[in-house]
Specification:
The protein is of the alpha/beta class. The protein has helices spanning 81-86, 112-122, 138-150, 187-197, 212-218, 220-229, 244-259, 279-285, 296-305, 324-331, 340-354, 360-375, 393-399, 417-425, and strands spanning 8-12, 18-19, 37-41, 75-78, 90-95, 98-99, 104-105, 130-134, 154-159, 167-168, 176-181, 203-205, 235-239, 268-274, 336-338, 383-388, 403-404, 409-410. The strands form five sheets. It has a six-stranded mixed beta sheet, sandwiched between helices. The longest helix is centred in the middle third of the chain and has 16 residues, at 244-259.
């Protein structure tokens, strides 16, 4: 069926300036300080599109120009066993991954698919530029899957140490190319590599947290939850690498308040990081809008030490207007840090109680929820949303053939831009 693009305007989070979309806006050109922009949808009520397949049932609150094939959706259910273990009466789990028994069919096993289907749906079909995505792992897998299946040219930049994250249930289409920063590098190095590539007009940056499509795609986890719960939750738990997912649900919380049918309150936010990579936790605990300094070598060492490798963003959207600091300030809540031992315990316990394997990152969120319960940050009768951002990978791999992708080239981001562009252009 023909799809009519979603209608929306753009709002600068720094000063409220409203302006129109020009095709791939990532910032307000009139704003003089770092700020996110936000989509203001013409349809102010959350109304699922039952006429559209998969993820695009959320299209009324997505900045998309088209729909793509192959998408799944987050699935929310009320927990029984984990809830009982923690003594919680109203614990709702929003699961993004592969668990067909409950209707969860994200084949990459990560909620990063919500980003990929939204961002790629924002792209006009006439676009000829190569989309460039930097990733620590899950985002790369999601975008590669979506672009491969829908014939969208894509360049992925990933640390070579994280290349095992690029597994798929079928070989990738030739329209997807992979470059990697060398062994011993981290996500920030992959970003630096991608930034140099995007100096060439043949390529376009995906935009990360600045892309409204990425955030509003992730914000569908909250839409899934309110449909099942019937109202906005009281508290929200998620592990964070950049904090973009937490910003996203806060933004949809504000939209739901304007809608008026789901409650008038802001759910408290409880994001968590995997120690010792705790740049946002440390900054928040000092109540500092500015991120604390983290020396590159120390950051790479910390990133290598944590189990949840995807939670290792050195330059997250924390300080800018509309970023994580503002979200936390507005909604309330707190931040937690979780050790590898705590992560491993709750990863195993979740599988035992809920009956499905989960990734290391959401295990951090489960551990942080246990901490919050223990210290009394949440009451046992409150309605709590636990965002399980990836799971079912063991289940998926047990049921299907698995293909691992390899980088086409490994490039040091310290190389001159001209050398990097010369190598990358030869791929296309």
């Amino acid at each position: 069926m023909d799809f009519t693009p979603t209608k929306y305007s753009l709002v600068c989070c720094a000063d409220g300036h409203v302006f129109e979309e020009t095709g791939w806006s990532l910032v307000d050109p009139q704003c003089e300080r770092p700020s996110l922009i936000r989509a203001k949808y013409e349809n102010g009520q959350y109304i699922p599109r039952e006429d559209l397949d998969g993820f695009y049932r959320y299209a009324n609150w997505l900045p998309v120009n088209r729909t793509l094939k192959g998408s799944g959706i987050p699935v929310t259910y009320k927990s029984v066993k984990l809830a009982a273990e923690l003594g919680l009466e109203n614990l709702y789990i929003t699961f993004s991954g592969w668990w067909p028994e409950i209707g969860a069919k994200m084949v990459t096993c990560s909620f990063k698919e919500t980003e990929a289907y939204s961002v790629c749906g924002r792209l006009c079909e006439a676009n000829k530029k190569v989309l460039v995505v930097a990733s620590a792992g899950n985002t790369a897998r999601a975008f590669a899957k979506v672009c491969s299946e829908n014939n969208i040219p894509l360049l992925v930049s990933i640390p070579e140490d994280n290349i095992s994250a690029l597994w798929f249930n079928e070989p990738l289409n030739d329209c997807v190319k992979i470059i990697a920063s060398p062994k011993g590098s981290d996500y920030y190095d992959a970003i630096a590599l991608a930034d140099k590539v995007c100096t060439d007009s043949a390529f376009m940056t995906e935009g990360g947290a600045k892309n409204i499509a990425r955030r509003d795609g992730m914000g569908t986890t909250l839409l899934s939850a309110v449909e099942v719960i019937g109202r906005i939750p009281d508290a929200y738990f998620q592990a964070i690498g950049s904090g973009t997912g937490t910003i996203a649900v806060w933004e949809n919380n504000l939209r739901l308040i304007e809608d008026g049918r789901w409650g008038q309150h802001k759910m408290r936010l409880y994001p968590s990081q995997n120690a010792p990579f705790t740049v946002m936790f440390d900054s928040w605990k000092q109540h500092s809008r500015q991120l604390i300094e983290m020396e590159p070598d120390k950051a790479r060492s910390a990133a290598a030490e944590i189990d949840a490798k995807v939670l290792s963003n050195r330059k997250p959207p924390y300080s800018l207007a509309g970023g994580l600091f503002d979200a936390m300030q507005d909604a309330g809540g707190d931040m937690y840090k979780v050790s590898n031992d705590e992560l491993r315990f709750w990863k195993q316990r979740f599988a035992e109680l809920e009956g499905i394997d989960i990734h290391d990152a959401p295990a951090v969120a489960v551990a942080s929820l246990a901490m919050a319960v223990k210290e009394g940050a949440v009451r046992n009768d409150e309605t709590i949303m636990l965002n399980i951002t990836g799971g079912g990978e063991e289940l998926a791999k047990s049921r299907q053939e698995v293909f691992y992708a390899q980088p086409h080239i490994v490039l040091d981001p310290a190389l001159p831009t001209e050398d990097i562009l010369d190598a990358v252009n030869k791929l296309f």
